[in-house]
Amino acid sequence: xxxxxxxxxxxxxxxxxxxxxxxxxxxxxxxxxxxxxxxxxxxxxxxxxxxxxxxxxxxxxxxxxxxxxxxxxxxxxxxxxxxxxxxxxxxxxxxxxxxxxx
Length: 102
Prior knowledge:
Layout: H1 2-10, H2 15-28, H3 32-42, H4 50-86
């Protein structure tokens, strides 16, 4: 979204005009769980400036994505280690060697 905002600015579109539309649009597109977390965080700072609110929302979403990636990596790493230690070991088959009496 940052890229799109910069592209609009390069075209001469003022961000103040677009942010008033984008903020509620982005907020309404969030999953309910994310929106609840955002509302809890947003209530900690009551900023009347829409531009600051959009910046805060984008920072929040970036943090959420980074957290999800870290959680996913931690779970994946843990599960791989868990599978490796819990995997039953197969008994080794003894190799039979042919002898002249066989």
